[in-house]
């Protein structure tokens, strides 16, 4: 322990105390005396002792009661307690151990035996001291880690707010239809991104992106992708091209191919992304759509039919020179277009079974009675009920476009088996 041990000798016999003091002091110990248990307790309250050598039989408070009270008053410091007794029956030894004694020594005391017992106790005290020091170091390290964790939590909370700000407008009524957006990361931040860009008086551009992986690196990549599709800087938006009349949406397959090359040449990361880029003409309902590995967009017709759009396509950021196709369809009054991330169709129930495309289509049919501004909240409620939790393993994002006009069938039975599920594939355009 790097210092002489402090020993408290407790005995009602002054002669016995002097003998023990002389023998122990000669061997380098610091010795303090007490003539009874009460006096010893007062000394223990004022000072810390490494060893307590206490006679068992003392008037008033005997050695057993003194040991009991000493153990109750101890803090972090541990004192090695040795009972001095002429009793050697097994029952007495057990009684002493139950009171908190560490060792016994028969009287009259043999100094060689006492020295051996003290050395054995010193090894225990040294290990206890080292353990206490290591616990203190561990406690300091845990405190530091807790402070770092809290700082990281604060930073991640701010990062979540910043990422959510990438989708500043979650609902808009265009007159010809309404759009609603949802972005819910599985952790503080995630790799999903959704948004829309008004493209003149008659068109709206919609995009949904899902970056591979989770967490901070994926979130940073979504922030970079958001810049490539920024509605405030059409000159740097990959989906727009400048013409004599201003900026117009370029062919969607070209826009996605351009984004693919940007990821490979500028970002240089192991991450890739799936996406859907869609353009809707508000007056005619003509929908053009380019799919790059993202789940198939779903059209829920006013009559209840479900159509899956697109042909799959290659994710962006994987291979240079990838080719993409644009498909087209027409949305009519009462139709709904859903663009969902795979966190929805791949959400699992309590048995581990995924929701899947067909059940996802049926679920969207069940949401037919909900207006666009509440349908996404209802979708999350159904997903939570299906999974049995509100914490999902994957990011969840969605775009809902509701065409103005006659409402979708209000009775889920009218949708019945989703009134037939179709897969709509348009020609490239």
Automatic annotation (TrEMBL):
Keywords: Coiled coil, Hydrolase, Phosphoprotein. It comes from the Bacteria. Residues 6-122 form the Response regulatory domain. Residues 135-162 form a coiled coil. The modification 4-aspartylphosphate is found at residue 55. InterPro entries: Bact_Sigma-Reg, CheY-like_superfamily, PPM-type-like_dom_sf, PPM-type_phosphatase-like_dom, Sig_transdc_resp-reg_receiver. This is Fused response regulator/phosphatase. It comes from Donghicola mangrovi.
């Amino acid at each position: 322990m790097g210092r002489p041990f402090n020993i408290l000798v407790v005995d009602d016999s002054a002669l016995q105390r002097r003998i023990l003091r002389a023998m122990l002091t000669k061997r380098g110990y610091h010795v303090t005396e007490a003539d009874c248990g009460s006096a010893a307790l007062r000394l223990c309250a004022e000072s810390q002792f490494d060893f307590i050598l206490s006679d068992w039989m003392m008037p008033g408070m005997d050695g057993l009661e003194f040991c009991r009270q000493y153990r109750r008053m101890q803090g972090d410091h541990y004192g090695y307690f040795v009972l001095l007794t002429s009793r050697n029956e097994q029952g007495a030894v057990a009684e002493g151990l139950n009171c908190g004694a560490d060792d016994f020594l028969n009287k009259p005391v043999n100094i060689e035996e006492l020295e051996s017992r003290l050395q054995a106790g010193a090894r225990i005290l040294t290990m206890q001291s080292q353990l206490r020091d290591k616990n203190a170091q561990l406690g300091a390290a845990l405190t530091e880690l807790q402070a770092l964790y809290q700082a990281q939590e604060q930073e991640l909370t701010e990062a979540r707010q910043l990422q959510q700000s990438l989708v500043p407008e979650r609902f808009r009524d265009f007159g010809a239809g309404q759009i609603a957006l949802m972005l819910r990361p599985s952790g503080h931040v995630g790799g999903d991104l959704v948004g829309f860009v008004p493209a003149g008086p008659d068109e709206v551009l919609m995009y949904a992106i899902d970056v591979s992986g989770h967490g901070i690196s994926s979130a940073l990549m979504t922030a970079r992708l958001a810049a490539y599709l920024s509605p405030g800087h059409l000159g740097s938006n990959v989906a727009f091209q400048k013409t004599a009349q201003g900026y117009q949406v370029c062919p969607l397959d070209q826009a996605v191919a351009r984004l693919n090359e940007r990821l490979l040449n500028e970002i240089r990361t192991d991450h890739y992304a799936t996406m859907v880029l869609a353009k809707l003409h508000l007056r005619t309902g003509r929908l053009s759509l380019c799919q790059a590995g993202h789940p198939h967009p779903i059209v829920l017709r006013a009559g209840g039919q479900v159509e899956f759009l697109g042909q799959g396509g290659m994710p962006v950021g994987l291979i240079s020179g990838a080719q993409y196709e644009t498909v087209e369809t027409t949305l009519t009054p009462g139709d709904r277009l859903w663009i969902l991330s795979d966190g929805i169709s791949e959400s699992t129930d309590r048995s581990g079974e995924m929701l899947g495309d067909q059940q996802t289509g049926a679920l969207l049919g069940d949401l037919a009675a909900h207006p666009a501004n509440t349908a996404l909240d209802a979708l999350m409620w159904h997903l939570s009920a299906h999974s049995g939790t509100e914490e999902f393993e994957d990011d969840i994002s969605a775009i809902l476009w509701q065409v103005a006009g006659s409402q979708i069938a209000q009775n889920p039975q009218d949708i019945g088996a989703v009134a037939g599920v179709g897969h709509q594939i348009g020609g490239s355009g």
